[in-house]
């Protein structure tokens, strides 16, 4: 079955990555994608891989605060509010990991850090990177989408049903929903930066992860 993504940029990147010369994506094509990283903090960037990341994953771009923003095996919690703090603002919700949940987890940083870092670095060799720019300027075909903050669309991520790792880095510009998580049964690793949600639909899915990172706003 053919799939037409709402994001023109994402569609084009995937077609290039998967060598789809007819620019047509099918359901089985998107099932091949195991890892997606999207960043917007220093300009838009997309990374894709057909390989699944290691069981425990510490990315090379994690920064010094990663240890304080990441927990492992959320299945050990009975309820979301044991490890997630949600706060309602005037027109949005923010999320944070609770300090108690971070303190109570087994500290892998001293025991396994070197091994995990080596395995993670090896995996990162499989990544392909894409940007929507010509030099310093966004490509003309994406200018309107960038101005309207529609270069990305969260509904598209419902199509990646075999995805195992998803990293949104500072995506508060366009990522305002996480309901798509209900479609991602294979997801193991989730990283969220700059969380500003329209609703909490999909929040329960955070209980089914091997690794969850939420950067403080």
UniProtKB/TrEMBL annotation:
This is Leucine-rich repeat domain-containing protein. InterPro entries: LRR_dom_sf.
């Amino acid at each position: 079955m053919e799939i037409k993504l709402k994001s023109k940029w994402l569609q084009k990147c995937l077609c290039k990555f998967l060598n789809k010369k007819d620019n047509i994506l099918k359901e089985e094509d998107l099932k091949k994608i195991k890892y997606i990283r999207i960043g917007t903090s220093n300009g838009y960037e997309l990374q894709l891989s057909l390989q699944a990341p290691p069981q425990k994953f510490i990315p090379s771009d994690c920064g010094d605060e990663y240890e304080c923003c990441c927990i492992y095996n959320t299945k050990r919690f009975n309820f979301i509010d044991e490890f997630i703090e949600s706060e309602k603002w005037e027109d949005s919700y923010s999320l944070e990991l609770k300090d108690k949940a971070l303190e109570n987890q087994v500290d892998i940083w001293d025991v396994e850090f070197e091994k995990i870092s080596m395995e993670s670095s090896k995996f990162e060799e499989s990544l392909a990177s894409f940007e929507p720019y010509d030099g310093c300027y966004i490509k003309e075909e994406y200018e309107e989408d960038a101005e309207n903050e529609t270069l990305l669309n969260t509904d598209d991520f419902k199509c990646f049903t075999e995805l195992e790792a998803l990293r949104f880095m500072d995506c508060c510009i366009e990522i305002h929903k996480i309901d798509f998580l209900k479609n991602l049964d294979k997801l193991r690793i989730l990283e969220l930066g700059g969380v500003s949600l329209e609703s909490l639909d999909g929040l329960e899915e955070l209980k089914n992860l091997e690794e969850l990172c939420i950067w403080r706003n």
